[in-house]
Amino acid sequence: MAVQLEGVRRVFDNNHVVIDRMDLGVDAGEFLAVLGPSGCGKSTLLRMIARLSEPDSGQIRLQPNGARFETSFVFQDAHLLPWRNVLANAALPLELMGEAKPKRDERARAVLEQVGLLDALDRYPAELSGGMRMRVSLARALVTEPRLLLLDEPFAALDEITRFHLDVQLRELWQRRGMTVIFVTHSVSEAAFLANRAVVLARSGGAIKLDRRLELPAVRNNELRADPRLGQEMRLLLGAIEE
Ligand SMILES: Nc1ncnc2c1ncn2[C@@H]1O[C@H](COP(=O)(O)OP(=O)(O)O)[C@@H](O)[C@H]1O
Ligand SMILES: [Mg+2]
Predict the structure, then answer these.
(1) Final residue of a domain: which of 116, 145, 174?
(2) What pLDDT is recorded for position 68?
(3) Does residue 153 come out as left (phi exceeding 0), alpha (psi in the -120 to 50 range) or beta?
(4) Pair (159, 228) in one structural domain
(5) What whole-number percentage of the chain has pLDDT above 70?
(6) What is the domain range of residue 116?
(7) What's the gap in Å between 39 CA and the centre of ligand 1?
(8) Residue 52 pLDDT > 80
(9) Which atom of ligand 1 is nearest to the CA of 40?
(10) Domain boundary among 145, 178, 199
(11) Does 90 share its domain with 134?
(12) What spacing in Å lies between the alpha carbon of 225 and ligand 1's midpoint?
């Protein structure tokens, strides 16, 4: 088990119970989508798994052990440093780890190649499209070779074509690297397209309304977007959200 939540509870402002006694296990190598309406506690959940915030009660265990740099987090906003070029942005976590410059540039270049940015290494964030910025953000998250990748609505602000493209790219990266991915989204179509398993949270209290293993082919490409099997999965997820 890569991530194990037991009886996790998170309360804001003394009496606003956002997540109440949540139990959830995520296997190593799984691609899990977490779905739910805005305000249901998805970000709160992800932040606790990332150790950016503590549960009020209950436990969250990470396997191996959640050491720094074994978990990476990608936010909706790319959060790039504007005064650093693409290569230096992607290499930042290695710099924080104390890696020597030749080594970190080599590793950053390799991961930027995987997200299709090899010809943009010298450009600055202001010179990039939203989709390219997000790809730099992904590269920076992957450069430490994390075992666990957490993404909080990373593509929500992008146009649909760019999002489709990044969905395919992320899925390929996951297949190549075998890491555990937890992807938070409010998009039913994106969850069904990307994940192997989807969890739907209730509007409040963090109750799990549906926990489903998606019955879709391993290879996800644009052909699948019009596949009736994807439509069927979307219908099930949507049903659980609206219930
Ligand atoms: N730091 C905070 N202080 C107070 N309330 C918060 C805080 N963070 C989140 N909340 C509240 O918790 C609920 C869940 O928020 P969030 O996890 O961001 O939802 P989601 O990501 O699903 O849209 C919301 O009602 C939000 O207002
Ligand atoms: Mg959120």
Answers:
(1) 145
(2) 61
(3) left
(4) yes
(5) 98
(6) 76-145
(7) 6
(8) yes
(9) 22
(10) 145
(11) yes
(12) 32
